[in-house]
Design goal:
The complex is a heterotrimer of chains A (about 325), B (about 325) and C (about 325). Chain A is mainly alpha-helical and about 325 residues long. Chain A contains 13 helices and no strands. In chain A, α12 packs antiparallel against α13. The longest helix of chain A has about 40 residues. The N and C termini of chain A lie close together (about 5 Å). With about 325 residues, chain B is α/β, with parallel strands linked by helices. Among the domains of chain B are: about 60 residues; about 70 residues, no CATH class. Helices cover about 30% and strands about 25% of the residues of chain B. Chain B contains ten helices and twelve strands. In chain B, the strands form two sheets. Chain B has an eight-stranded mixed beta sheet, sandwiched between helices. Chain B has a four-stranded antiparallel beta sheet with strand order 2-1-4-5. In chain B, α3 packs across α4, α3 runs parallel beside α6 and α6 runs parallel beside α7. Chain B starts with 5 loop residues before the first strand and ends in a 15-residue tail after the last strand. By secondary structure, chain C is an alpha/beta fold. Chain C has a single domain, classed as P-loop containing nucleotide triphosphate hydrolases (Rossmann fold), CATH 3.40.50.300. Classes of the chains: A mainly alpha (about 325), B alpha/beta (about 325), C alpha/beta (about 325). Chains B and C meet through α7, α8, α9 and α10 of B and α7, α8, α10 and α11 of C. Chain A: This is ABC transporter permease.
């Protein structure tokens, strides 16, 4: 297994290289430049030219690319033009915010979806099943921004149960109990929103897996042993049905850093998704390229992680 | 005769499947008796209802899409009237089941030892250690050389023959009085098939269990069965001790089948072809001789209006009177 | 005279592993077999699952890559794809598969399925093509209106007949039949086997009949080869194999076939166990140190056995 993991990392190198070229040029071909937003009727074109020259934006593109990739390999992604901060620090801070938000979101998501999926599959065609299906279709049909705005309005502004933006109240200092509570309080509403909206896929998937599993030969064998039906479900049906969900776990884990653009934007949460959108809007190349490279790496890592997880939970799959 | 008394009695059993909101009987009035210490083979082609019959004996059919009535008498109780909990007391310690496809019939995520042990947990008072020992013993009993290693393995790590042995070990774990084997060797190579059939015979000698063997293979029947019931379109059309049936088959269907076997004829001969096709469940004629449409050259008067079962020799039963008039059709050009 | 010769055919698959996914081992699916085909004869290839019999058939027709060895058709070496196209090999050698259902395109009408080989190999006008299709359907005993139906509208036996109709559309010389009746019920199987014999007689066809069912092969074939671990352990006429088996593996295989009579089954069982024991004892004498089947040596004009010289006589 160790060998395969090493091999997979080696294969990632050319993949990331191709991605880096794509990212670099896509960023370059975007209309405008970092200074577009600064232009006013009074701006002197010569001054703009001077800024561009200083930032190296007038060099030929191969030189720009080599400079960028060289720095990137050293872990330096440059300075954000808009935030005037080191990109690594900026992303690190945002990633941490997003990580906690995502962790709570995904935990809630599974906590809601797995029991519902299991119940729907177990009691297929019952009233309970039909209710769960109805629920999952409703949440599937509601656009993210509608539910997010609704929750924000209802629980944030009307009932004032939750803060309406930010990631922590400014009056608390880092390390205190209130500080962590405040953080948790800030992410709870966006996390619930995210979890409710994401359940459909898992519920439907799990439900159909369970219904399929019920008809499997090995379930018939289990029943022929005369063991209680409850045990047939827990030991044979549920376990085997959860397997394909485990297959996505790797992506889910690396996806924790990705963040959700809609949720973060609407809840004014300073996370990765929001950073991504704002960096595109402001043509903040160094941030965009760093983020896309990071997302690319995380996706590759996620697929490797998924394979490793599968080889652990499914004895039939061996990585060699 | 080594048989000593009846242990399972099926009376006028009907098993219907729901198709377009109506029930059509795939098993249509089957009566059978299984005796202790015998192998009763139920033989027939696909769709004749033999597997449906087998799985419904211990209530493994889907209750939503199936309608079952009649009687399956075991120890003076009708198994069809039992609830799920009561049936669970029968499944395993009283009636064990051996399935056809040894790979898909084992849970791919569970170790072999755990799958065999499962039944023991609920049907015996053995503690964990005793159960582990019993699993080893069972694996040895079904002819597995290194039981300790196999118990720790997963199904995909075993060969087809080994998996079928494990399936048998599961079925006999709680020492059932009856074994139902549904095509136990169909998925296996002939040399493995021979070993598995020998194993079944040995187990039967050791335990005295009655075995119902479901198969489409007349060769397998000839090698191991004591008594044979031939099924066609949901009915038993002939039943006899094995020698009687193979030496003096009566029913036109049975006789036609024998003449279709390549092994039985020299290669210059043409194999017998049964004219027409088995009618589908929906189009099955529910009155008269069901085989009549396949032997149209036999005149209609030869069949009974309401085919009865006739005892033509000791313990040899045939449905319908058409066997008296039956002759093979003269060779035609096809 | 033989029209096709297979010489020392090998199909090996690489097993990959390690950091750079390099070849670490090979699986010898087919490991050096030779055959000759005469017209009008049926050849049986028998063995247990995994012995390489299907791979052999697929390699001959070009569905598997041949590692080494030659396929010579009417004097032309047609081992690889390019040379196959130059001769009439593609037209003259056709195949029937076990699973008739999945070997017929579900989205094509029967007419188009059968027309495909005709369009590929025979230059017929549309009218002639139509007539040819009707003719073929008649040969396989299917009604004219089957033309416009889709494969799923037919039963298993009918689908297999459609598969045969497609295979004989180009008037082939050899049909490779890979377990053509294994999925069928006895009475349907009988129908297909009769039919295959009929068209053999009528068109002077040869068959390479691949099967695990020794009864079917005995009924159909003139010559039989027994295959084990990618090699022939014994090959000869039907009579040689069934009445005078020499190799211990052949004997074991034959003794395991259930006989369709209960008379003498106790004796057969004792015999089988005796042979099984003998097989375990004598195994070493029939295989080399790598458990590879020995080379074939002739013991009569037709009969070849894998053994070292001199051949041990008798056994049991």
């Amino acid at each position: 297994m160790g060998k395969t993991i090493i091999r997979r990392f080696i294969i990632m190198i050319p993949q990331l290289f191709v991605l880096s070229i794509l990212v670099f040029f896509l960023a370059k071909f975007m209309p405008g430049d970092p200074f577009t937003g600064l232009i006013t009727p009074q701006t002197d074109p010569a001054r703009l030219e001077e800024l561009s020259e200083k930032a190296g934006l007038n060099d030929p593109w191969p030189i720009q690319y080599v400079r960028w990739i060289g720095n990137a390999l050293h872990g330096e992604f440059g300075i954000s033009y808009t935030f005037k901060r080191d990109v690594g620090d900026l992303i690190g801070e945002r990633a941490l915010n997003t990580f906690w938000l995502s962790l709570l979101s995904v935990t809630l998501l599974y906590a809601i979806a797995i029991p519902l999926g299991i119940l729907a599959g177990r009691y297929q065609n019952s009233r309970l099943d039909k209710t769960i299906i109805l629920y999952s279709f409703i949440t599937y049909a509601i656009p993210t921004f509608v539910l997010a705005l609704l929750f924000l309005f209802l629980f944030g502004y009307k009932l004032e149960w939750f803060p309406t933006s930010g990631s922590v109240d400014i009056e608390y200092s880092s390390g205190t109990l209130q500080y962590y509570w405040s953080k948790f309080h800030h992410i709870l509403l966006p996390a619930i929103t995210y979890a409710i909206l994401g359940t459909t896929g898992i519920i439907q998937f799990l439900r159909s897996e369970i219904i399929d599993a019920k008809g499997m030969d090995y379930v018939r064998t289990a029943r022929s042993k005369g063991i209680p039906i409850k045990k047939v479900y827990t030991k044979h049906i549920f376990r085997n049905s959860l397997l394909p969900i485990a297959a996505f776990l790797g992506f889910t884990i690396t996806g924790l850093l990705g963040g959700s653009i809609f949720i973060e934007t609407i809840f004014g949460f300073p996370g990765m998704g929001q950073l991504f959108v704002s960096s595109i809007a402001s043509r903040d190349y160094s941030v965009i390229t760093a983020l896309v490279m990071l997302y690319g790496f995380l996706t590759l890592l996620g697929s490797l992680l998924s394979d490793i997880i599968m080889s652990i939970v499914d004895p039939r799959i061996r990585i060699e | 005769m080594k048989s000593t008394g009846e242990i399972l009695k099926i009376k006028d059993l009907h098993i219907g499947f729901k198709i377009n909101d109506e029930f059509y009987d795939a098993v249509d009035g089957v009566s059978l008796t299984l005796k202790r210490n015998e192998i009763l083979a139920i033989v027939g082609e696909s769709g004749c209802g033999k597997s449906t019959l087998a799985t419904s004996i211990i209530g493994l059919h889907d209750p939503n899409s199936t309608r079952v009535y009649g009687e399956i008498l075991y120890r003076n109780q009708n198994l069809l009237t039992l609830g799920e909990d009561q049936l669970n007391e029968i499944r395993g310690p009283e009636i064990g089941m051996i399935f056809q496809d040894p790979l898909s019939s084992l849970n791919p995520l569970m170790r072999i030892g755990d799958q065999i042990e499962e039944g023991l947990i609920y049907h015996t008072k053995q503690n964990a250690e005793e159960r582990k020992n019993r699993v080893q013993e069972l694996l040895q009993q079904v002819g597995i050389q290194n039981p300790e290693r196999v118990a720790r393995q997963f199904p995909h790590q075993l060969s087809g023959g080994m998996r079928q042995r494990v399936i048998i070990a599961i079925a006999i774990a709680c020492k059932p009085k009856i074994l139902i084997a549904d095509e136990p060797t169909t998925a296996l190579d002939v040399t493995i098939q021979a070993q598995i059939l020998d194993l079944l015979l040995t187990l039967q000698h050791e335990t005295g269990a009655g075995i119902i063997l479901i198969t489409h293979d007349l060769g397998v029947v000839a090698e191991v069965a004591d008594r044979v019931a031939v099924m066609y379109a949901g009915e038993i059309i002939e039943e006899a001790p094995v020698k009687e049936l193979f030496l003096h088959p009566k029913h036109p269907y049975t006789r036609s089948l024998f003449h279709s076997i390549p092994q039985m004829s020299s290669s210059s001969e043409r194999l017998n072809v049964i004219q027409g096709i088995v009618p589908s469940l929906i189009n099955l004629p529910r009155e008269g001789c069901r085989f009549a449409s396949r032997i149209p050259w036999i005149k209609a008067e030869a069949h009974e209006k309401n085919p009865q079962i006739h005892e033509v020799a000791s313990e040899h039963f045939v449905r319908c009177t058409c066997y008296k008039e039956f002759h093979f059709k003269k060779e035609r050009n096809s | 005279m033989s029209f096709m010769v297979i010489q020392d055919l090998k199909v090996h698959y690489p097993v990959r592993g390690g950091i750079f996914n390099q070849v670490v081992d090979t699986i010898r699916a087919v490991d050096g077999i030779s055959m000759e085909f005469e017209s009008g004869k049926a050849y049986g290839l028998v063995g247990e699952s995994g012995c390489g019999k299907s791979t052999t058939g697929r390699a001959i027709i070009g569905l598997e890559k041949i590692t080494s060895g030659r396929v010579i058709y009417e004097g032309v070496n047609v081992t690889n794809k390019r040379t196959k196209r130059k001769s009439s090999f593609n037209r003259d050698v056709q195949m029937i598969f076990q699973d008739a259902h999945s070997s017929l395109n579900p989205r094509k009408r029967v007419r188009d399925i059968i027309a495909e080989p005709i369009q590929n190999f025979l230059k017929l006008s549309l009218k002639e093509e139509e007539r040819k299709i009707s003719e073929l359907l008649e040969i396989v005993g299917m009604p004219e209106d089957a033309k416009y139906k889709y494969p799923h509208e037919f039963s298993g036996g009918q689908k297999q007949r459609l598969g045969i109709a497609r295979a004989i559309a180009t008037n082939p010389k050899l049909i490779i039949a890979d377990e053509p009746v294994s999925a069928l019920d006895l009475s349907v199987q009988a129908q297909i086997l009769n039919f295959m014999k009929d068209i053999q007689r009528e068109f002077g066809l040869s068959y390479l009949f691949i099967s695990h069912d020794l009864g079917v092969v005995k009924h159909m074939c003139d010559y039989i080869s027994i295959m084990y671990k990618g090699r022939f352990v014994e090959s000869g006429t039907k009579n040689d194999i069934y009445n005078n088996p020499q190799h211990i593996y052949t004997k074991r295989l034959l003794s395991a076939i259930p006989q369709v009579t209960p008379i003498g089954r106790e004796r057969r069982k004792r015999e089988r166990i005796k042979i099984e024991n003998y097989y375990q004892e004598q195994y070493k004498n029939y295989f080399d140190e790598n458990e590879r089947v020995l080379d074939l040596i002739p013991i009569s004009n037709t009969h070849h056995v894998a053994a070292t010289l001199p051949m041990q006589k008798g056994g049991i």
